[in-house]
Amino acid sequence: MEKIKNAHKLVRWNEKKEHNNSNKDDGIELTELNSDEVTYVEPEKESISELEEKYNEYLKEKSEDDIQKVKVPKAKPENSNPVPTIESLASINPRYVASSFIDGITRMRNVDPIRSVRGLRIAKTKKLTKTNNGWLVPGAGRKSYDVTINGDGVYSCNCQDFKNNTNVCKHIHAVWALEENVKIPSVQVLDKQIKALKKSEKKYSKSWSVYNKAQRGEINAFLEVLKEACNLIDEPAQDKGRPRVPLSDVVFAATYKVYSTISGRRFESHGERAHDDGYIEHLPHYNTVSKYLRDPNLTPLLTYLIEKTSEPFSAVETEFAIDSTGFGTKVTDTWHDKKYGVTKKKKMWTKLHANVGVKTRTFAAVKVTDIHANDSSCLKELVGRTASRFKIKEQYGDGAYSSRENCSIVADHGGTPYFLLSKRARRIAKGVHIWSTMYDIFHENKEDFYKHYNNRNNVECAFNMIKSKMSGKLRSKVFESQVNELLCKVLCHNIIVLISELYNLGYTLEDVKESSILDSQMNVITVNSFEGTEQEHVHA
Predict the structure, then answer these.
(1) For residue 32, what pLDDT is reported?
(2) Where is this region: Disordered (predicted)?
(3) pLDDT tens across 322-341, in order?
(4) Residue ranges of the alpha helices (H) in 184-246?
(5) b/e for 342-380, b at 16 or more Cβ within 10 A?
(6) Three-class SS state of 122
(7) Are residues 468 and 320 located together in one domain of the fold?
(8) 18: part of which helix (H) or strand (E)?
(9) DSSP helix/strand/coil, 272
(10) The pTM is what?
């Protein structure tokens, strides 16, 4: 029965095939025929076996035709449209970009990958207008920026990012891509690249619960640590005369007054509460505090307390950054301009030189001078005092400290210097081999050099922490008083940093009261305990 069904199928297939072939147009015009002229001729019947052979041949031909009809996609060239890498997107040479001049220091520009990709996006989506001396580049809003190119082919821009930072701005990247006929990928690819670069940025998490505890309990903990620091002061002997106010109470009151950022008269109510709580035995008059601040003999004592408050980090800090900053005063200097016969005034300021630990931003060594003191001349003293209490592995500094003598000083204390070299620097060692080593790293492996050198930014951060919390101006008018007031600010900063790290390690106010935080033999902060919270500092 099955064979009969298959036979009927083959017959119907053959009839259908012949019918289709008869209806094909072979290029011959068909004419209408009368029904009388048409005669039906019955086709010859083929055997089932012949039909099977014909059907199998048909299936074979059909399979070959289908295989030929399948479109095989052409293989794309390997580099037809590659996903851009960071190196290819940020390939502009910083030598052809105007150097930055910030804080009186000339620096070569850096190439930021995110800015370069954003510049390519501007060149892809915005219309840049050619000008006489460069290009007019539209910004994110309605404002446009002028990118100028001088005769030497050096780019410069008038945007704030170019003026205030050391990176090549995105507008210069856009002009460079347009002039160099860079093949820019699609906007979607650029957006993905920006997103990937943002994810790759190193981010530090903050434990808000710990931060809130540290901020809420800072003043009480500050008084406890300050009291412990003042207890380290040895009272000078007095044989006769009127009994003096204890020196520890004067230092406590002066430092607490600077921490409060208010005047001496208004501070007396805070001093009374500190006296009632037992932090000081005698409450000094505000004039007494001002008198002691004018005493030059107080300077080495405050310097000693600053160093003692940094010693708890002696097991943690091995890398240091040196720099200087200015603090404004109310004092003005009058000078006569002989050329124009005019008397002019200018504000005076006091200069703070410091060597700061890059992990905790604690001040390991400080020195206060007038505005005319040279930065490089202070390195020997600061590094020497730091090395007496810390193990220096790396020492960072900007171009002001770049000299063979300073490199030799750092190397003598067991450290590796990373000072920014100027264009005029030469490799000649002149007996200081560490200089030629640093020169080779700077010129042959800039990426590795800047990986270390960029830690220098922490000293700038430490200066900003002081100025933002305790003001960047000094109330005192006499220079000796300005020096001591500035040292009190640094002492307050060191105590605040110490409190923040103690809260990071799980300490409470009761623990601070009971523990000898400033005792170097207690080892309150160790390397192991610090590494567990290194990413969650709660510096104020």
Answers:
(1) 45
(2) 1-28
(3) 999 999 888 776 665 655 66
(4) 187-200, 208-216, 218-230
(5) eeeeeebbbbbbbbbbbbbbbbbbbbbbeeeeebbebbe
(6) helix
(7) yes
(8) helix 2-22
(9) helix
(10) 0.65
Q: Is there a domain that residue 5 lies in? A: no
- 52-66, 120-134, 186-200, 284-298: the lowest-pLDDT one: 52-66
The two structure tokens encoding residue 448 = 């590795």
In the three-class reduction of DSSP (H, G, I as helix; E, B as strand; rest coil), residue 102 is classed as strand
CA separation for the pair 401, 421 (Å, rounded):
9
Name residue, tokens 């981010």: 203
SS3 of 283, please? Answer: coil
Q: Is residue 286 part of a domain?
A: no
Where in the sequence is the domain holding 333, given as residue range(s)?
A: 314-473
Backbone angles phi, psi at 349, to 5 degrees: -145, 160
Pair of tokens at residue 32: 């209408």
Confirm if 389 and 311 have CB atoms less than 8 A apart: yes
Shared domain for 330 and 464, answered yes or no, is: yes
Q: Which amino acid type is present at position 343?
A: T
pLDDT of amino acid 336? 58
Length reported for the chain: 540
Quick check: is 120 in a domain? yes
Average pLDDT, the chain: 81
Question: Domain boundary residue among 419, 440, 473?
Answer: 473
Instruction: Return the CATH number at 395.
Output: 3.30.420
How far is residue 231's CA from residue 219's CA, in Å, rounded to a whole number? Answer: 18
Same domain for 195 and 325? no
- Structure tokens of 480? 């000796």
